[in-house]
């Protein structure tokens, strides 16, 4: 695992749901060098659970980050792309910063 991947793993563990920190795994794909971090979090409904999976390239970039929720019978209830959600939040934040820094137009009376 590269230094950049270790940094990403540390962030993944730090942000993980507290009841999932004992259920983590790390896999390295020898052909690509990508690291896959997985964790399982028991749900509020007995037998339900959520899985979080993050794939990180050797240079530390997130290639995939998803959350899947399963019912007590193992049926997939929800599959969310967390990476897409994070990039949308960044775009919204940068857009709001630009809007705040833009000076209002003042009528010149022409």
Write down the Rg.
20 Å
Oligomer: single chain
**Helix-strand pattern, N to C?**
HEEEEEH
Unreliable residue stretches: 97-101
Q: Tell me the β content.
A: 25-35%
Q: What is the tally of helical segments?
A: 2
Domains (count): 1
Helical percent range?
A: 25-40%
According to DSSP, the number of beta strands is: 5
Main sheet overview: 5 strands, antiparallel
List the strand order in the largest sheet: 1-2-3-4-5
User: How far apart, in Å, are the first and last alpha carbons?
Assistant: 65 Å
The chain-level structural class is alpha+beta
**So what's the overall shape?**
globular
- Mean of the pLDDT scores? 86
Quick gist of this model?
The protein contains two helices and five strands, in the order H-E-E-E-E-E-H.
Walk me through what this model shows:
The chain is 30% helix and 33% strand. The chain is α+β, with helices and mostly antiparallel strands and 110 residues long. The protein has one domain. It has a 5-stranded antiparallel β-sheet with strand order 1-2-3-4-5. β4 (62-70) and β5 (76-81) form a beta hairpin.
